[in-house]
Predict the structure.
Amino acid sequence: MTDPFPFQNDGIDFLAGRTAAMLADDPGLGKTFQTIRAADKRVALRVLVICPASVIGTWLNEIRNHSEGGWEHFVTSYERATGRDYDHIMSEFWDVLVVDEAHALKSVGAKRTKSIYGFTAEDGLKRVDAIIDRAEAVWLLTGTPMPNNPSELYPHLRALAPSRVTSERNGKIWSIYQFVASYCLTKSNGFGLAIVGARNEAKLHSKLHGFMLRRRKSEVLKDLPPLRFGEVHIEGDLDALPAEEVKIVQAALAKGGFDALKDVAGHVGVLRRLTGLAKLPATIAWLKDWLDSSAGGKIVVFAYHKDVIAGLRNAFGAMAVVLDGSTPIAQRQVAVDRFQKEPKVRVFIGQMTAAGVGITLTAASDMLVVESSWVPAEISQATQRIHRIGQTESCLVRFASIPNSIDEDIQRAVARKVTMIDAVIEGKGQS
């Protein structure tokens, strides 16, 4: 059996001693491993794991390899947990409920949040039978507890730590609207109030103390090889991008920054796809040159759109494996294992949202992001597929971009967003 690192022992103790907790370590620090050992330490008999479909195989492998407690387990996806598996889950009682990639429950009004946390209204005050009611302990796992803004912390605190969102004045639990008023900067967009930033960051960070445990790689893995970032300037036909769409998106960025992009989502979607396709031929040529010169090395390639992924798959054939939203659950771990173990499989092609979490791709220390997500948390998660425990080489993540394109404008906006998130989660803000 694998021996935990000292910081992992701390994480195991943190979870095992709590009935409600969030483990928010950096991706790659072994949240799955720590959770399994915490269930052992708690002497659990039955454990329910709800996770993205893409990592069900990972969870089953990790439980088989690392559990010493012999507890029964049921591992299911968010979709199944709130659909066909819901009646089974609600008919049983679980010693531990693990919610992996828990930022999936960031919206109070989402169906999955209602089913798991029991909210029936956006104020979060009404409750129905919920999955969390069937468990003695509920442990949330996420490397990105606040993907976009502070409001996304509210569902977790309201469901599992309500005292932390209770008014000091009248003792009543805050609604989502009161929480937003206290911790979010808002701006009218013509249809209502849109969240454009954070406020009282240090106070909110203190509210997380004791409920959330977060460690950074730089703090606990001093010997982990560094993660570096670079750019690959790719030729592309900017004339193929519709000028009117570009103007609309640029105007939205200038007016409201990153958060204004959702107001022009249709135009953004058009540009994302066309930009990806414009980069495809030169990207394939760059990758072929890299493979020719890397002496058997492996590389992880992330994209977003189906036709871009299809173009990459066709270019590399048997040399590549693909994991996207259409990959059957049973085949997802197979793709990961083949890339990790088979020398002839040198390219892992992943769709950013389907393959960006919960898997280990340390057979490669190089990554090329062909189509970068415009959600900061997704970028961070994807890069950690190669930069995690088990990696022995310095990692280099390159972003392919067309110079002087809308790509560059949006990435600058993403960088500003990352700074705001750090202020709350890392405790770097000012009250």
Notes: The chain has two domains: 6-220, 227-410. Residues 227-410 form a domain with the Rossmann fold fold (CATH 3.40.50.300). The mean pLDDT is 86. The first helix runs from residue 6 to 16.
